[in-house]
Predict the 3D structure of the following.
Amino acid sequence: MIRSISKRSRELGTENAFVVLGEVNDLVRKGRDIISFCIGQPDYETPSNIKLAGIKAIENGKHGYTPSSGILELRQAIADYILRTRNLHVDPDDVVVGAGAKPFIMYSVLATTDYGVGNEVIYPNPGFPIYESQIRTMGAVPIPINLHQDRNFSLDANELESKITDNTRLVIINSPHNPTGGSISHKDMDDLADVFRRHPQCWIFADEIYSQLCYDNKFSSLTKHDDLCDRIIISDGVSKTWAMTGWRLGFAANKMLASIFSKWVTNTESCASQISQWAAVEAFSGSQSVAISMKDSFLERRNLIVKLTNELPGVSCLTPGGAFYTWPDVTEACKMVGAVDSEDFRRRLLNDVGVAVLADIHFGERVLESEQHIRFSYAASVDNIKNGIDRIDQFIRNNKR
């Protein structure tokens, strides 16, 4: 008898940033000098006050199970954080903590759709690849909504409304956005709110993991519309703002779904690490000076990489409003060097000049075949940004046809 692997597992998607990171690490082991812009994590250490809080938790024996929803001290700190950053009152009992923000994508799909009955989930394209992966694997129907370069990758309310049907159960909104760095403006957010008012069957998953990395405009959340808050799932965490990716600590907040999320945590993780939870209390409640300093450095790097990228032959780059990504258009550069598409361009950059980026197809189907994009994570040193862009410049000029 031949044992089989489930169709669901065989077709499960992945996050290509980690696939490319594996390629990078393999080349580094072989002695190659690689400058990497492929992984979306801050290149800073977790602030020392947060690390000390984690150490104190270990020393004080805080390393057993916690309630599945998280320790009350952290849920209260998160409620205070939501009030401070979104002017929204949330009860600590409506907050659920998990091992990162990513699990709440799955939990939200599971909580709002049923398997194989045609329930639809709308998600941004390009977008975080785990959206489509989780929607499809959980038995719902993934419906992409395209983000356009001529709108600076903000979500178009009219296009969203055209995608909503009687089967739509959940809409995913991500701002600031991965991979483009685009942010939904206050005006666009108001237009989206009007759409949701006309479609009361839709839950809204607000992926706000980059909420504290907005540069030119103040962070805008759909939660400013009080009449929608009962169906908005706020999702955020400590990974990006406080350089805590490896601590694996995120949360979701929604009054009606909190108990459902807590049951899902019980079924999957049991609870988030208690050590990470106590460190996160300090992240949300303690001094923000280091987080502010990191944000300031990302802004400087954003301005630098946008300037240098726009000086490359055949490349144009919009200025992103948040996160730490740029999404330059390399259509003409691909033609110049004879690259078939952005993925061919990406592979050649990695193998020929040792620069690691991601291609647009790692984030969904191309919005337009006439546009080719790559993603830079500028969570990298200034020297690496300068040297990496210089290598790309040499590659394009040396391979012009």
